[in-house]
Amino acid sequence: MNEILTQDKPIYLQLSEMIETDILRGVFEEEERVPSTNELAKLYAINPATSAKGINLLVDEGTLYKKRGIGMFVATGAKERIIKKRKQAFRDNYVKSMLEEASHLGIGLEELIQMITVEQNMED
User: Strand (E) positions, 1-124?
Assistant: First the structure.
């Protein structure tokens, strides 16, 4: 968790996304403790209430849970829930708009798949 905070979106959202990403990358495993709100506040020089808001968002989604007096921990099944949530967001934010624009430009599904395949091959 050493990413840099930006002005693009609220800090509490960035913190929750950073923790989610670390869970996806295996930095935090199920049942493992994550940094506390105070640790996050100190690390990023932010108000503890802001870091608490980011942590509480993950608690509300079932990604983290609290062990009273010990800290916050990654919930069982958190990685799968994050993947499901992010796939839905990817579909909503990228795929739908791409298909709409392709339709406006008269690009059919086969041509679109070919474009994606060519682009993927260029990156490899």
Answer: 64-67, 71-74
